[in-house]
Amino acid sequence: MRGLIFAMLIGLLPGVAVAADCREVTFDGVGFTTCEVDLTQEDLRLFLRDEAGEVLGQFSRVEANLPPGQRLGFATNGGMYREDRRPVGLYIEDGQQEHGLVTAAGPGNFGMLPNGVFCIMPGQARVIETMAYLRAPPNCRDATQSGPMLVIDGALHPRFRENSTSRNIRNGVGVDASGTRAYFAISNTAVNFHLFARFFRDFLGVGNALYLDGRVSRLYSRDLGRRDYGLWLGPILGTVVDEAASAQ
User: Fold this and answer.
1) Cα-based angle 2, 220, 232 (whole degrees, multiple of 5)
2) How far apart are CA 85 and CA 21, in angstroms?
3) Phi, psi for residue 186 in degrees, rounded to 5
4) How far apart are alpha carbons 151 and 160 in whole angstroms?
5) Which of 185, 218, 231, 236 has fewest C-beta within 10 Å?
6) What is the rounded average pLDDT of the residues 14-38?
7) Predicted TM-score of the model (pTM)
8) Mean pLDDT over each residue of the chain, to the nearest integer
9) Which of 207, 187, 206 is nearest to 196 (CA)?
10) Per-residue H/E/C for the chain
């Protein structure tokens, strides 16, 4: 079903190399790596388990699990997970929900309300605050809940402080106003939430952005020749590239 929908979206664009545009940038003297995904042309998905139900957990295993002729273009960790690598909050993959929405406050970054949901639909995506999602859930093909929200309708999360000494490697996702472009970013050095959120709002120009994680933040980018292996992950977000199209 997922492949059919995507084929319908790009069927009139043969030969398009559908790969995320990843680049190194600097904001306020700090280096970031950002990957821009055009949802109208690129096949962005969530990955958790193989056909046997085992958690994939590594970019290499996600790629090995793809059909012949397909490969990963870009990938990153896709939300918070428990010790057994099950998602903490809402998780939907290819229309199938594995875990429901969590609305209560709690410990850790996930429970720092407001948190939110990254929702992928055919040709577009949204970052939605959790209670807004609860009131009017969209028809997400894939969705992952994480937290905290970084940017909410153009405002930084109310608990972020510019002088915070809590610093970590961080990664997150934001979506432009049209919903057709998703921006993923990972800090190249340890940063606090305030700086990371401002990067999304003031540099990338997105009105809504969601934190994905901290110390487990990983990136896979063929553009940059970057492959962050090591820790086992839970949900993984990535683009799937058709090798025949990318070779043209």
Assistant:
1) 90
2) 29
3) -135, 135
4) 10
5) 231
6) 84
7) 0.91
8) 91
9) 187
10) CHHHHHHHHHCCCCCCCCCCEEEEEEECCEEEEEEEEECCCCEEEEECECCCCCECCCHHHHHHCCCCCEEEEEEEECCCECCCCCECCCEEECCEEEECCCCCCCCCCCCCCCCEEEEEECCEEEEEEHHHHHHCCCCCCEEEEECCEEEECCEECCCCCCCCCCCECCEEEEECCCCCEEEEEEECCCECHHHHHHHHHHHCCCCEEEEEECCCCCEEECCCCEECCCCCCCCEEEEEEEHHHHCC
**Tally of CB atoms within 10 A around 3:** 12
CA dihedral 10, 178, 140, 147 (to 10 degrees): 130
Q: Which residues contact 230 (CB under 8 A, 6 or more apart)?
A: 218
pLDDT digits (tens, 9 = 90+) for 177-204: 999 999 999 999 999 999 999 999 999 9
CB 45 within 8 Å of CB 20: no
Q: Pull the structure tokens for residue 40.
A: 């109208």
142-146/149-152 β-pairing: unpaired
Q: Which two tokens stand for residue 157?
A: 């999360």
Place of tokens 């996930």: 110
Number of Cβ atoms within 10 Å of the Cβ of 134: 13
The dihedral sign for the CA sequence 74, 79, 82, 83:
positive
Task: Give the pair of three-digit tokens for residue 183.
Answer: 């921006």
Q: Does the pLDDT value for residue 14 go beyond 90?
A: no
Burial class (CB in 10 A: 0-12, 13-18, 19+), 246: middle
Cα–Cα distance measured from residue 16 to residue 244, given in angstroms and rounded to the nearest whole number: 10
Nearest-CA neighbor of 50 among 41, 61, 42?
61
Give residue 75's identity as a one-letter amino acid code: A
Indicate if the pLDDT at residue 215 is higher than 90.
no
